[in-house]
Task: inverse folding
């Protein structure tokens, strides 16, 4: 179907929906990486804002 594009292949959906230990570990690490990226982006934007306001 058209819904199954590159970002949501059946394999990816299987990993996201299954509840075995390996998938939980992968999900946890992906979530940690996601939040780390967001926090570092926010920090960098704050630094840019501080350097611009000087």
Result:
């Amino acid at each position: 179907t058209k819904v199954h594009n590159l970002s949501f292949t059946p394999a990816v959906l299987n990993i996201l929906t299954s509840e075995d230990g390996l998938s939980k570990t992968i999900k946890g690490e992906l979530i940690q990486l996601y939040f780390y990226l967001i926090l570092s982006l926010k920090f960098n934007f704050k630094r840019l804002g501080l350097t611009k306001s000087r």
